[in-house]
Design a protein that fits this description.
By secondary structure, the chain is of the alpha+beta class. The protein contains 17 helices and 18 strands. Strand 6 and strand 7 form a beta hairpin. The radius of gyration is 33 Å and the shape is elongated.
Length: 523
């Protein structure tokens, strides 16, 4: 048994001692031993910590984990996970998602890595992250499809524009329901599946994902996602898509369901060629011209309608008229025209005067074959190749340079629609850049539930990383910092356990300025 005593010194100071009774087996009695605790006041409160209690027992990484924990709270992700999965499981998912950004590792390495971070303390997660526990947890989360849909519903915007995009991912597992032999299998040796992601253009963050078999084309997935958005009460929304989703069936389906959309028309479609050709007469008008992102841009507006399973020209007052727009970027147009005639000239110079070979076209690269479609090849009396340009084909190709056509249900001004579409391209680019980093661990998942659990964690990682990217752009830091730069700067900031108390290490000027610029509290 022990107790503390305060002893006053002749100099007026007070010392605090811990008195412990110790039994002496030789003398058959007890004696007291005193342990000095430190200088105190008259009531026994220590005034300063003794040196022996200032030993550093642990010094884990703090900076990037504090950043992403606060970003998760500010973006509403933490509260959504807590509401759907409960605080315990929600925080475990969040911890794995953050770890997947800052220090991505496989499941069997997670336990060792997380011990060197302050992540568990920040989130209040009392979990060892042992491999077997993490595997069981991922299986449980992957099997809980109803909770996953509730999470998507929590994160989904109820109106505005959304972006739907699909990427192809590989997997070495043959036990996944959606893993199939696809068009890239002969190159990679892996089966593949398609991952569809839905982004909100209000916050530029993904809020829902879907998995599809690897053999399914993009155009076949739209019907399902439209139904899913309806189920989430996302109405009215406008779908922003790329040309891979264009089909007459999709246009008809979206019109019938009252779903807003903006989708480019592929250049191979007849109505696209007609719109591009028609726009030449009016698109250069000063009334259709503006300045955007250091380039002159132009817009031409007309109308089309569905007739006998194809799009045809229409007038504004026609029944079923759909707004059609042609956009032109003068800078891009100049570059593409220069590239076009450079390739034509290069192929002409290389083949003209050579021995005529009627199989020469098959020996060209894919890009050269596209250029060769604009030329005619014949043999002269000496058996030499004569190259002639196809005037109409080249004119049609030149008309398409720097221009593209879209159909839309939106009534926004053409410049606003162009800005919106470029934003969509930016989100798609960010997603494509991150997919290889964040979805690498899916390849080894051996069963469906584990793969679904892994996809959920990676989806959360993607959302958090895009939250940081959006913040860097918003604060004007994207030119100086990108995600790896932020991580490298903040990984040097650690927190130490000294005498049982956590104390933040010295914060450098660069770290402090970065936290302040992002509007994130250091502690």
């Amino acid at each position: 048994m022990s107790y503390k005593v305060v002893q006053k010194q002749s100099n007026g100071r007070y010392y605090l001692y811990e008195v412990t009774g110790v039994w002496d087996p030789v003398k058959k009695n007890s004696k007291q031993t005193r342990t000095y605790l430190g200088v105190c006041d008259a009531e026994g409160n220590l005034l300063k910590e003794p040196a022996r209690n200032r030993t550093v027992s642990h010094s884990p990484v703090y900076g990037p984990y504090q950043l992403f924990v606060q970003l998760a709270e500010r973006s509403g992700l933490t509260s959504a996970l807590d509401d759907v999965y409960g605080v315990r499981d929600g925080r475990r998912l969040l911890a794995m998602a953050i770890l997947g950004i800052v220090d991505p590792v496989t499941v069997n390495q997670m336990e060792n890595v997380i011990d060197d971070t302050y992540l568990r303390e920040l989130l209040g997660v009392d979990w060892g992250f042992e491999q077997s526990s993490v595997c069981r947890f991922l299986q449980t989360m992957g099997h809980a499809s109803e909770q996953r849909e509730l999470l998507f519903n929590e994160l989904a915007p109820k109106s505005g524009c959304v972006i739907f995009d699909i990427v192809c991912l590989g997997t070495d597992s043959e036990d996944l329901e959606y893993a199939e032999v696809g068009k890239k299998t002969h190159l990679t040796g892996s089966r593949q599946f398609n991952l569809g992601m839905v982004h909100s253009m209000e916050d530029n963050l993904p809020f829902c994902y879907r998995t599809y078999p690897g053999s399914v084309a993009d155009v076949s997935t739209l019907d399902n996602i439209v139904s899913d958005l309806r189920t989430m009460d996302c109405s009215p929304v406008e779908l922003e898509m790329d040309r891979g989703f264009f089909s007459i069936g999709n246009v008809q389906m979206m019109l019938e369901r009252g779903m807003g959309f903006t989708v480019p028309i592929p250049a191979r479609v007849g109505i696209s060629k007609l719109l591009l050709s028609e726009s030449v007469r009016e698109i250069d008008s000063p009334l259709n011209t503006d300045y955007l992102e250091r380039s002159v841009v132009r817009g031409y507006e007309t109308f089309v309608r569905l007739e006998d399973d194809e799009l045809v020209k229409a007038s504004e007052g026609d029944a079923g008229a759909i707004r059609a727009l042609v956009f032109q970027d003068d800078s891009e147009r100049t570059k593409e025209i220069a590239t076009l005639y450079s390739r034509i000239g290069e192929l002409e110079n290389r083949l003209s005067g050579t021995g005529y070979d009627r199989f020469a076209r098959k020996k060209l690269t894919r890009t050269e074959q596209q250029t060769a479609d604009l030329l005619e090849f014949a043999a002269d009396c000496d058996g030499k190749t004569v190259v002639t340009r196809k005037r109409n084909a080249i004119s049609a190709k030149e008309n398409a340079c720097g221009r593209f056509a879209v159909i839309t249900t939106s009534d926004k001004h053409w410049l606003d629609l162009l800005m919106q579409y470029r934003l969509r391209n930016g989100v798609e680019y960010d997603f494509s850049q991150l997919q290889s980093d964040l979805f690498v661990d899916i390849t080894g998942k051996s069963d469906q539930d584990s793969a679904e659990g892994g996809l959920l964690v990676n989806f959360l990682s993607l959302r958090l990383r895009l939250t940081l990217i959006n913040l860097l752009k918003e604060k004007g830091l994207a030119g100086d910092y990108w995600v790896p730069d932020v991580l490298n700067t903040l990984k040097k900031l650690k927190i130490s356990c000294i005498g049982g108390k956590w104390r933040l290490n010295e914060v450098t000027k660069a770290q402090r300025e970065l936290f302040e610029a992002l509007g994130v509290n250091i502690q």
